[in-house]
Amino acid sequence: MFPPNLHHASSIMSLGVTHMRGIMAKSMNSNQYIVEMRNITKRFPGVVALDNVDFQLKPGEVHVLLGENGAGKSTLIKVLSGAYSADEGEIFIDGQEVEIRSPQDSLDQGLRFIYQEINLVQEIDIARNIFLGMEPMRFKALGVVDQKTLYQKAGELLKQFHIDLDPTGVVSKLSVTQQKMVEIARALTKQAKVIVLDEPTDVLEDRSRQDLFQFINQLKVDGIGFIYISHRYAEVYELGDRVTILRDGKNTGTYRIEDLTFDTMIEKMIGGEIQKQYPALSKPGDNIVLRVENLSRRGFLYDINLTVRKGEIVGVTGLMGAGKTELGRAIAGVDKRDSGDIFIDDTKVNASTPTQAIKDGIAYLTEDRKSLGLILDHSIRKNYALPSLNRLSVSILVKHREIDTEAQSFMQRLSIKAPNVHTLAGQLSGGNQQKAVVAKWLGAQCNVLIFDEPTRGIDINGRREVYQIMEELLEQGVGILMLTSDYAEALEMSHRIIVLRRGEISKEYRRGEATEADILREAIGKINHNGQPATAQD
Predict the structure, then answer these.
(1) Predicted model pTM
(2) Which superfamily, per CATH, for 275-361+446-538?
């Protein structure tokens, strides 16, 4: 946990809190708002992403920005960051109108951003990413970095977030979850008036979330303002002071958190009444569609044995680094297995590559939609067709009309917000990109679907749509292996739950046998005398 004395924490992380206190005290005395955005309008081809939006941030508050996918949240933040230029509107920082034409302009104004998408230099190590541009210098005039101090400070910072990573490790070797934690650590090393957090906890386990929340509350005391975007609605009440809700690019209202009930908040977001979130899962069949025997991958997975029946969802959960994603990738042929056999409908299959796995009837929906799930400069229809080209072609002739019809159908079923199927995947919001990945793999018509964090970054309506699609697939006899770090999702959407701990199956629960606390205790395992998860050496 972070120490109660903020100055001790800041001495480790070079935050310069004393300097920020002076800046923020002046700001609080002279202006009501640190940030004020007036009548912001932003248009894209065929879409008005923002329509005369007003937004204000006070010193020392967490102002939560809510809305469904495509409502305009990320666009508003990108205007503030200088990534986009507004077509109309004004921005004020500390009461002074400013022009933010580039990301550097926003940094110069004391604004710091942690985006939903990963933004790290993949080819360099963790420590250099954290302190990029702020490296401790041994001989400043000569530009010589103090390597010992660099790695020591990075290690201390990672430890404070309970991030069990070697600061010398190269970022490209990390999972998307680990990269997000490094990115959060990096943003908190820099002096800031305002910190913008776009879905910061989507990939964090509970303990790291609580550490982040404690640190946010400490920085609020010093007058730092936070703009917070999240689909984890419980966090709104845990952290938020005020809430602004966007719908279809318009500001539908700003509310004090104590004046906004959960039901009212959701209804204002979706423009209607709340519907049931989780479907009633039908009873699975008796036939086993997927069987994994003695699967191992050195350093990641050890002697994994599991089955999935037709019409069944088997949820796999655990702490970060437990092996969830590695399991999905190994079964789907993305990563090489050291040992183990895979059976589909009692027939042993090769599944040694993704192409072969698809032919064998296994589809893997990656958690990393940006790098692995989509080709961002290709259209929705092209991305949809990629894993299904054998089905959607005759000889060398592609059935373009069928591709258009199917892609359009899935756009409607999953409520993908885009002008048409020719929209580039890179132009979609994060949640709509996730739904495009789901559509692509549903079109592959495989008997086994591996969903890796299927609803990460998706709004409440989008989650319900994905769950309904999953229920439809069960009725068709498909077996689903769902890899999720959301314990509530695992409990509500699984017939059986497998808990992984350090690459091994720790426990299996039948539906209704476990609570979130049970899963967390099993995921952590034994605790050593320092209050940390025990290792083999303990």
Answers:
(1) 0.64
(2) P-loop containing nucleotide triphosphate hydrolases (3.40.50.300)
